[in-house]
Design a protein that fits this description.
With 252 residues, this protein is α/β, with parallel strands linked by helices. The protein has 8 helices and 8 strands, in the order βαβαβαβααβααβαββ. It has a single domain, classed as 3-Layer(aba) Sandwich (Rossmann fold), CATH 3.40.50.720. Helix 1 links the parallel strand 1 and strand 2. It binds NADP nicotinamide-adenine-dinucleotide phosphate.
Length: 252
């Protein structure tokens, strides 16, 4: 059994997840670097340092999810914080295609159901699968918490405002997957309220990563801040919130 608190970050081999992992190790936690490709997870963990450990975890693969939970139990004996960060934005955007051009191919009237299913499989069902697998471990740890990495683009309130500049790219694929993740966050927070396990959603802001072809404006250090802040809030922190740095509420 680990003395230090143990945190699992899904999709931590690159991007914002990797930075969250680095920051939490710097705060003295043991970090499990979730990675669907074990070698890339191992390389990331090595880069972070001895308190980071690679954990093979493909959130769309039930066998991988179950094996990861078993390994956490057997090798670390506890799980204090679960950060659900893994996500994809699409599977079929053409190289060099602009976000606006891609959005035109993913309207409700013409979106590929296969594309929508593929993205929701990772961003929505994958999150629920990992939640169900890791919850028994979290329940054994007093003060456990869950952080779901969502996005402001999933806000129904924001997208319902005709003055919002980016509402034309609100599509059933990635943006609506984050809306569904927000719904899951609220459902999880309600379920776990009686047990004192906190569940919150955060948005990194538009961050320079592989997810958007490095078109973002924020650094990964900036993108990771809110997830790290919320992960470290402790037992008296709130539940069922949706925020961006620093603790600015995003409307659902
Ligand atoms: P990223 O650099 O593309 O990282 C995404 C991570 O998720 C990668 O490690 C990827 O693994 C992993 N992943 C994808 N599918 C997976 C699966 N089936 N199982 C396990 N891991 C999987 O993107 P990012 O920008 O850091 O994204 C991190 C989070 O921030 C996501 O939830 C994203 O929606 C959210 N977000 C990002 C932005 C932004 O502007 N970047 C804005 C708002 C919200 P591989 O390396 O194997 O592909």
């Amino acid at each position: 059994m680990q003395d230090k608190p143990v945190v699992l970050v899904t999709g931590a081999n690159q991007g914002i997840g990797l930075q969250i992992a680095k920051d939490l190790v710097a705060h003295g936690l043991t970090v499990l670097v979730g990675s669907r490709n074990l070698e890339r997870g191992e390389a990331a963990a090595k880069q972070i340092g001895p308190d980071a450990h690679a954990l093979q975890l493909d959130v769309t693969d039930q066998v991988s999810v179950a094996a990861a939970a078993q390994r956490v139990r057997n090798e670390f004996g506890r799980l204090d914080i679960l950060i659900q960060n893994a996500a994809i934005s699409n599977t079929n955007k053409l190289p060099g295609q602009s976000v606006e051009a891609y959005a035109k191919t993913t309207r409700p009237s013409n979106v590929s159901l296969d594309e929508m299913r593929a993205v929701w499989e990772t961003n929505v069902f994958g999150v629920l699968a990992v939640y169900q697998a890791m919850l028994p471990l979290l329940r054994e740890t007093p003060g456990a918490r869950i952080v779901n990495v969502s996005s402001g683009v999933g806000s129904l309130t924001t997208n319902s405002n005709p003055a919002f500049a980016y509402r034309s790219i609100f599509s059933p694929v990635y943006p609506a997957s984050k809306t569904a993740l927000n719904a899951l966050t609220v459902a999880m927070a309600i379920e776990l309220e009686p047990e004192g396990i906190k569940v919150n959603a955060v948005s990194p802001g538009f961050t320079k990563t592989n997810l958007n072809g490095y078109a973002g404006t924020e650094t990964v250090e900036e993108g990771a801040r809110e997830a790290v802040r919320v992960a470290l809030l402790g037992r008296d922190g709130p539940t069922g919130t949706f925020t961006r740095w620093e603790n600015a509420t995003i409307p659902w």
